[in-house]
Amino acid sequence: TWGRMGKIIMKKSARKKFEKIRTWSSIWWWEPALKFLGGERMEYTIESTFLPVPQFRGQFTVYEKFFKDTGKVDTDFYFIHSVPFVNAVCGWDLAVGWLWFRDCFREAVVTICGLEEGDCYFLQTEPVNIRPPHNMQIRLFDVVKGPLDAEVFVDIPYSMLEGTHPCDLHLDPAVMKKGKSIRGTFLTTYY
User: Fold this and answer.
1) What single-letter DSSP state applies at residue 152?
2) How far from each other are the two terminal CA atoms of the chain, in whole angstroms?
């Protein structure tokens, strides 16, 4: 998979802070949508269409671990797919992630919005390596703390994600770690 996609997991009580960002379009993209699509929970409907894609299968287990470990509740958060969020904030996004997989982007969001720990998390999926080992990485981190102190980090062989029914995949908690979730940066872009 080539895309660096993911979610902006935003605490509902921090919404006013996010309204400080000047955007090309609304980051609350579900508000003008038809109600039968699910309103703010519309992301669940959209995410279900991605389940056949192995890249997205591990995300649900990462969410489960995050909520279990932190005691937080999913209904306290907005889940915003990275593509409409980055489109609104930056004016475009090709799902390559270069714009929001950068420390300067993370720091700008924190500074402009005045975020505190627990206000917002990024869930980021790295593309599968084109050379062996063909691993997939998923990281979920507090935007204030950054990817060097991730809440959940997974680096697993892509083969674990393919060949299963999408709803039958549950990652072993032993492959989910905390802490450093990137090898480094190049031009402030995570790798």
Assistant:
1) E
2) 15
Q: What pTM does this model have?
A: 0.92
Q: Please tell me the distance from the alpha carbon of residue 179 to that of residue 73, in angstroms, as a whole number.
A: 22
Question: Mind spelling out the 3-state secondary structure of 70-109?
Answer: HCCCHHHEEEEEHHHHHHHHHCCCCCCCCCCCEHHHHHHH
As a residue count, the chain comes to 191
**Contact between 80 and 44 (Cβ < 8 Å):** no
Report pLDDT digits (tens) over 126-183: 888 788 888 889 999 999 999 999 999 999 888 888 876 667 778 888 899 999 999 8
Residue type, 112: I
How far is CA 99 from each of CA 28, 83, 155, 168, rounded to the nearest angstrom?
Answer: 19, 10, 22, 33
Residue 6: name the closest of 56, 42, 49 by CA: 56
d(CA 48, CA 155): 23
